[in-house]
Amino acid sequence: MAQYGLMINYEYCTGCHSCEFACRNEKNLSHEEWGIKMVELGPWKQGGKIEWNYMAIPTELCDVCKDRIAAGKKPACVHHCLAFCLDYGTIDELKAKLAEGDHKVILFVP
Amino acid sequence: MKKEWKWGTENDYYVRTAGWSPPGDHPVGCGMILHVKDGKLVGVEGDEEHPINNGRLCIRCLSLPEYVHHPQRIIYPMKRAGERGENKWIRITWDEALDTIEKRTKEIIAKYGSESIVVFQGTGREATQHSYALASAVFKTPNAVYAQSGWSCYGPRLAVDAFVFGGGYPEIDYAAMFEDRYDNPNYRVPEYIVLWGKSPLASNPDGFYGHSLIDMYKRGAKFITVDPRVNWLATRSEYHLQLRPGTDAAMALGWLNVIINEDLVDHDFVDNWTIGFDELAKRVQEYPPERVAEITWVPAETIKAAARAFAKARSAGIQWGLAIDAQPNGVQAAHAIICLLALTGNIDVPGGNILGPSHSLLGNWRFNEAGAELSEELRNKRIGQEYPGVLMTCPTAHPDSILDTLETDKPYPLRMAFISSSNFMAPTCSAQPKRWYKAMKEKMEFVVATDIFMNPTINACADIFLPVATFAEKDAIVFPHFGRNTQVMSAINKALTVGEAKSDLEITRLLGLRLNPSFWKEQTDAEFFTDRLADGDSGITFEMLREMGAYAPPNEYRKYEKGKLRPDGEPGFRTVTGFIELCSSLYPNFDEDPLPYFVEPPYSPVSTPELFEKYPLIMTSGARRFSSFHSEHRQIKSLRAIDPWPEIEIHPDTAAAYGIKNGDWVEVENMFGSARLKAKVTPIVHPKVVMCSHGWWYPEQDGAEPNLYGVWKSNINNLIPHKHVGKIGYGAPYKCMICRIRKADGVGIEY
C-alpha cells in the first residue's frame, strides 16, 4: 500500500478540537491519549498586529487511519475537521497539492 | 441522501439523524450517523451526505455518548425528599409525577388563577419551541418567560427586523437553499462578510453553520470584524474595528454617514423599496467619522475605509449578533445595521443577506393556535404591560417585569413555575441572579423542572424533576432560525431510549392531555410533526423527511419584487407601509425615536465618570467556546479538560499594573456584585476592557445550599443590573458594564 500522509492548512484551522475527538473515537483512546493534538501559536502581538494560529499535529499513534482508507473512507480527523483544513493522500498526491502554492501548509508523514 | 435512515441488526444498528438538543446547540441540524449496540450509543460519525455539515462535527456531538450515558445524568422522574436546596431527591414513577403536577396545578389555579403560573424557557434548545404552547395551551397562563434582562438574546433582533422590514432574521447567503451549495450558478460568494458583534465559529448562531464562514473565506470572501476583541476571525479579517463595548450604534451611524455623504448608495433600491431616506440622511450628519472615532475608540480612517469597502462591494452581508441584543441601545444599532444593508441593496440578493422562505414550521401552531387557548382576559394579564413593543413582538412576558412581580406580588402573585430546560440562575441568563433566587424561594409554592442533569436552579427551587431525552432519543425536526429563516430542515430520528427520559414535546403533550385535553391529540412526536408540516405548503410528511434526511423548502432571491413576502401577495416588505422603514412608522407608538441614534451605555467612562474612577475597566462577557453551550457541559470530562475554568481576559499592560499573572484567580467586582475567574493575560483585548466567561457553575462541588454547586462563585451576572433596558424594553448591558479587578484566592476546589 502506498505511503499516506496528512496535509494541514493552518490558515484555516480554527482550533475546534474536532480532529482530537474524532481520532480518539476512532482509535478508542482515553481522555489522556492523543492521536493528533491541536496546538495554539499566539495570540502574539508582533509586526504591529496579532498573530494567532492553531495547528493540528499528529502523534506517533497516527497511521493516517489506514483501516478507514482501506474501507474507502477518509481518516477520522479529515472527515470531521470543521474547517476542512486537513487533507490526506499519497505522498505524491499531497506533493502535487503543495505545488499549487497555498501558503501556511504543512505536510505530515507518519 | 441515502434512502434508508436505519440499518443493521436488532442489537447492533446505525441511525442517520441530525443534531439539535439536548445537549444544547442552536438548530443547525448537522447530519450524523449514530451507532447503537446492545442498547447503548457507542459511536458518532458525521454524515458526509448532509448538505450543510458535509460530514463535519464539533466536539459536542463527537462526545455525545459520554453525555447520553453520563453517570450523573438523571433518567427517571424524581421528587424532592428534603427541603428545597438540600439536594435530596427520590425516584418516582411518571404516573406519580404527572398526578402530582395535575393536582397541584389545579389547586394553584383555583387559589390564584392560572396567570400565577410562570413557564421559564432557556435559549437555543428545542424546548424553547414548545414552551409557548406549554404556557398558553397547557397551563393557560400568558406568562412564558425567558428570564434574561431585556430579553437580550435574539428577541431584540427579531423584533427590530419585524419593525423595520417585516420579519425574520436576514441571514448571510451561505448557499444553503441550493442542493449543490456554493457551486450553484445563481449563487455568489459575498465579497465582504461583516461580523458585527458575532463570532459564529463556536456558536453556530441561531442555526447558521458557523464554519460556513471558512467555506466562503476559501472561496474568496473577505471579512470585516466589528468586535471589542481580536477574536480569531479578526486575525483573518481585512478590517478589524476594535470598538468600545456598547458603541455599536454610533459605529453603524458613522458608516451610514460615510455611505450617504460619499453617495455610495444603491439609489434604485432605496427609491423603490425604502422610506425615510431623507430623514436618515439628515440624522447621520450628527455622526461624522471623527466624532464616531471619539466615541468608539476606532480611528476615523479605519471607519471610513471599512464603510467604503462594504458599500462598494459587488455583494456583501452583515451578521449581527447577541452583542447587539445585549445593550440598551441595541434596538438602534440593529436598525442602523439594517439601514446599511438597505442602502447598499444587499437584501435578499445573491451574496447578501437573504430572507427565508415563507413557510415557518411551527409558527402558526405555537403562536396562533396554541395562543388562542388563552382568553382575552388572560391575554391582557401578561406581565410587562409597560413594554407594549416587547409584548407585541414576543409571545412572552417581559423578563424584568416578571422579577418585579415576583418580588412585589403586583399586579398579582406568581406562585407556580414550570422550568423548561433553563438553568437561569447560572450566569447565562438572569441579571441579578441572587434576586431571582430569593424571589423564587420565597414566592413559589410549586415548581417543576425538566432537564438532563441536576443543576443549581433546579436544586434551589424545584419540587419535581422530569428527565428529558437527548436528540438521540427522539423524533423531531430541526429548523434553523427557529423557523424564521429556515433554508434547510433536517429530520431528527430516534436511535435509542435511555431510562425513562421523554422528549420535551412528549412531556408537553402528556401534561396537555391532562390539563387541557380538548387542544391536545394522543399521538407520537412523529405524527405531531407531520401535522405541523401539513400546516405549511411543503406537501411532505415527517416520514418523507426521514427518508430525505434534509429538505430545502422552495426559496428564491428578491422575493420582495415578486410579492412573496406579504400576505396580500403585493410586492414589497411585510411592514405597515410595505417598505423597509429607514425611519420607523411604529416607534413613535412606543415613545421611541423613529430614527437610529446613539446613547451611552448606562455605566461608562462618559455616562458615569465618577463611578468609572472607582471601576476603571469596561467589562464584556459571553464569548463562546467549542467546549460548552452556555451553562451546559461542565460535567463532561473530555470537554471540561479543554476549558477547565472560567476566564477573565486581561491585556498584558493592565495585568502588570494590577500585579496579576496568567492563571491567577481574579475577583472582578462592581457596585452590583462580584465574581471570581482565572486570569488569561492576552493582547486580544483592549487595555481598558476585560472579557469574562459566562455560564459557570461547578457540578463537581456540593450541590446543597448554600454552595449550590458553586453557582455564586463565578457568576458574572452578579455584576449586571436589573432593568436597565432600552426604551422599548429590549436590551440590557450584559456586554458593556464597568468593573475593577484584584488578585484573589481560588474558588475553594480542585478540579
* Strand proportion of chain B: 15-25%
Q: How much helicity do the residues of chain A have?
A: 25-40%
- In the CATH hierarchy, the third-tier topology of chain A is known as Alpha-Beta Plaits
Overall structural class of chain A, as computed from helix and strand content, comes to alpha+beta
Describe the structure.
The complex is a heterodimer of chains A (110) and B (751). Chain A is an alpha+beta fold. Chain A has helices spanning 18-27, 66-70, 76-80, 91-98; strands at 4-9, 36-46, 49-58, 86-90, 105-108. In chain A, 40% of the residues are buried. Chain B has 4 domains: 1-69 and 476-497 and 524-555, Phosphorylase Kinase, domain 1; 78-151 and 359-468 and 503-520, 3-Layer(aba) Sandwich (Rossmann fold); 171-354 and 571-590, 3-Layer(aba) Sandwich (Dimethylsulfoxide Reductase, domain 2), CATH 3.40.228.10; 609-743, Beta Barrel (Barwin-like endoglucanases). Helix content of chain B is 29%, strand content 17%. Chain B has 27 helices and 28 strands. In chain B, strand 25 (665-670) and strand 26 (673-681) form a beta hairpin. In chain B, helix 3 (94-112) crosses helix 22 and helix 9 (248-261) packs across helix 13 (300-312). The model of chain B has no long low-confidence stretch (mean pLDDT 96). Chains A and B meet through helix 1, strand 2 and strand 3 of A and strand 4, helix 7 and helix 8 of B.
